């Protein structure tokens, strides 16, 4: 019988995850003396406070930014909100000290004494095996284990994983009563064909680490606004001029055309910075690679002014988008409190609603205003690339900033948006990240 | 968009060493199911699995300060080793109540055709292994899944190499039968 089925089982069992025993964490927390923080400000509460502060700044920013101005401002970034305290524990100081000073509860020899007669040399590889794999013996029960683990590293190869695997094998030999100088035994047929399962385990993990944590990201973003003006000589009113004398007050558009006849007119477009907020979830595939997806809301405010200096139509357009971002992030450098990363991805946004308000001005005086709902609701696709940095505000809270570039594809609609006027845009995100 | 780089193993480790309890919780959350699977492959009783896992985590957290990060996967492998050691320790302590490991080698007929394990879902395979008698299960796991040699297994369990080989042979035959039964259903 071949061993392919056994290889299959081995690989699948290495990847298999079982259910968490119910109540294990609670029991463990009690044993480790980890109690919910009392009288101490929770890191997440602190994060929430910071978030609220950012929210206040964001509101102030919005008020200032969306007051119409003649010149577009440069891109800004908004802040974020929402406190999300979940847990905050603190280890009982005495208990931690005790644990740190006495990590081993049982020695190899003590374990061996628990075994049936005749198995004293076998013992349980236990702690010696468990803690020596990394070259630094966590549990130094005796000189045998320590010396083996120290020798194991160079034999196991130059990589950390190799060391760990080699040390593991070496220590097991030692725990089995072998001389510590004994060369590493290769596995028997099946084992040698398949290589060590520990090697396999490490190799599996070197490429990807499964089941890494999720984090929630709250962010706000802005891209640069846009403004332009196209001037022309008004002549469209000529045909209606004859009717204007008596009827233009009922038709402000007619009046504007009439009064602008022969004047220089212009169409001025001003797109304010789109404002975007979002909530996303990130999942780590490896220590460095993460995939992020979520939901965004974007507001694209614009003002168009068409006509002469005194007689014109001012159109306010507010488009609301809901989007789904998908981003791949690569962390290329970390410091104790800082992470630096690159991210690239896509954003698919759908215009869900929009409102257009036309105000008619004759002699700089508003004579009529009418609103309508935008009938076109196009999809807006974009790709983005950014560099990011995040700073640790609290153990589970990070403040991050991601400046970058975004390219917006033509949405094929007749709507005038900042994305259409300026497809390649500076993009900046600022947010808070909560891990759980 | 944001990303979840908060808690890669390396930074998680740093935070735990700095006394960050939320990071401890995260480490637990990240690996408990993986370690639970290891434990459960050796120990059939769920309450025992829980106890052994608890001991393993206590040992992990109490000695993590001396763990040296050696690259991606090293922390997980280290935790897995501790868990396996705890499971073996438990089995050795409770050997009398389990199925004894006998030293006799029984020649079982070798099937020419290997069972088609790929048709069996991982969860079912996992349970099939759990359902093996303790002696079979332990040796099977150590030899097939962990890649240990019979010499190593003999040393770890306090049995002879011949016994280890015998148990493995029986385990493979028993498991193959289970798989065949499942795939023929």
Helix/strand class of chain B: mainly alpha
From the spread of the alpha carbons, the general shape of chain A counts as: elongated
Q: Quick one: CATH class of the largest domain in chain B?
A: Mainly Alpha
CATH architecture of the largest domain in chain A: Beta Barrel
Q: Report the average pLDDT across residues of chain B.
A: 84
CATH topology heading of the largest domain in chain A: Porin
Proportion of beta-strand residues of chain B: under 5%
Query: Would you list the SSEs of chain A in sequence order as H and E?
Result: HHEHEHHHHHHHEEHHEEEEEEEEHE
Number of domains of chain A: 2
Global shape of chain B: globular
- Named CATH topology of the largest domain in chain B: Rna Polymerase Sigma Factor, Chain: A
CATH architecture label name of the largest domain in chain B: Orthogonal Bundle
Distance between the termini of chain A: 47 Å
Give a short account of the largest sheet of chain A.
8 strands, antiparallel, barrel
Give the strand order of the largest sheet of chain A, numbering strands 1, 2, ... along the chain: 3-6-7-8-9-11-12-13
Can you count the beta strands of chain A? Answer: 13
What is the element string of chain B, with H for helices and E for strands? HHHHHHHH
Helices and strands of chain A: which structural class? alpha+beta
Query: Proportion of β residues of chain A?
Result: 35-45%
């Amino acid at each position: 019988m071949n061993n392919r089925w056994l290889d299959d089982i081995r690989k699948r069992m290495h990847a298999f995850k079982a259910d968490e025993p119910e109540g294990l964490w609670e029991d463990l927390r009690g044993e480790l003396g980890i109690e919910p923080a009392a009288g101490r400000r929770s890191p997440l509460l602190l994060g929430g406070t910071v978030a609220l502060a950012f929210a206040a700044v964001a509101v102030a920013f919005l008020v200032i930014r969306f007051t119409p101005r003649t010149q577009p401002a440069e891109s800004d970034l908004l802040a974020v909100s929402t406190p999300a305290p979940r847990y905050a524990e603190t280890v009982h100081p005495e208990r931690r000290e005790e644990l740190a000073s006495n990590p081993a509860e049982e020695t190899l020899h003590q374990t061996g004494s628990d075994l049936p007669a005749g198995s004293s040399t076998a013992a349980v590889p236990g702690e010696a095996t468990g803690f020596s794999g990394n070259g630094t013996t966590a549990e130094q029960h005796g000189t045998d284990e320590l010396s083996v683990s120290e020798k194991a590293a160079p034999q196991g190869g130059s990589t950390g994983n190799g060391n760990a695997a080699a040390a593991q094998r070496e220590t097991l030999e030692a725990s089995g009563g072998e001389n510590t100088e004994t060369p590493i035994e290769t596995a028997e047929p099946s084992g040698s064909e398949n290589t060590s399962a520990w090697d396999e385990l490490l190799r599996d993990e070197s490429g990807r680490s499964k089941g890494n944590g999720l984090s929630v990201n709250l962010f706000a973003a802005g891209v640069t606004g846009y403004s332009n003006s196209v001037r022309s000589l008004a002549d469209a009113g000529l045909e209606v001029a004859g009717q204007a004398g008596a009827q233009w007050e009922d038709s402000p558009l007619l009046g504007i055309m009439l009064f602008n006849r022969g004047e220089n007119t212009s169409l001025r477009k001003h797109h304010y910075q789109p404002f975007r907020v979002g909530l996303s979830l990130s999942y780590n595939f490896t220590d460095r690679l993460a995939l992020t997806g979520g939901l965004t809301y974007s507001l694209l405010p614009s003002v168009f002014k068409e006509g002469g200096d005194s007689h014109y139509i001012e159109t306010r357009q507010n488009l609301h988008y809901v989007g789904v971002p998908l981003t791949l992030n690569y962390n290329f450098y970390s410091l104790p409190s800082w992470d630096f990363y690159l991210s690239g991805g896509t954003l698919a946004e759908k215009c869900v609603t929009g409102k257009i308000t036309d105000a008619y001005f004759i002699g700089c005086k508003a004579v009529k205003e009418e609103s309508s709902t935008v009938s076109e609701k196009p999809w807006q696709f974009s790709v983005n690339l950014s560099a990011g940095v995040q700073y640790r505000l609290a153990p589970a809270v990070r403040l991050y900033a991601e400046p970058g570039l975004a390219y917006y594809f033509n949405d094929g609609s007749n709507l005038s948006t900042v994305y259409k006027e300026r497809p390649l845009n500076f993009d900046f995100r600022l947010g808070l990240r909560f891990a759980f | 968009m944001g990303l979840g780089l908060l808690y890669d193993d390396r930074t998680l480790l740093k935070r735990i060493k700095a006394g960050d309890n939320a990071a401890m919780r995260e480490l637990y959350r990240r690996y408990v199911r993986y370690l639970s699977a290891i434990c459960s492959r050796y120990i059939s009783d769920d309450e025992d699995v829980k106890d052994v896992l608890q001991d393993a985590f206590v040992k992990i957290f109490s000695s993590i300060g001396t763990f040296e990060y050696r690259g991606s996967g090293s922390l997980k492998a280290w935790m897995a080793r501790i868990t396996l050691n705890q499971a073996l320790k438990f089995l050795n302590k409770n050997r009398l109540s389990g199925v004894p490991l006998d030293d006799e080698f029984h020649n079982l007929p070798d099937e020419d055709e290997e069972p088609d394990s790929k048709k069996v879902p991982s969860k079912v395979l996992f349970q099939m292994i759990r359902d093996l008698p303790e002696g079979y299960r332990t040796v099977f796991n150590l030899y097939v899944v962990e890649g240990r040699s019979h010499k190593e297994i003999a040393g770890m369990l306090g049995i002879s190499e011949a016994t280890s080989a015998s148990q493995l042979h029986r385990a493979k035959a028993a498991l193959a039968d289970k798989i065949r039964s499942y795939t023929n259903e």
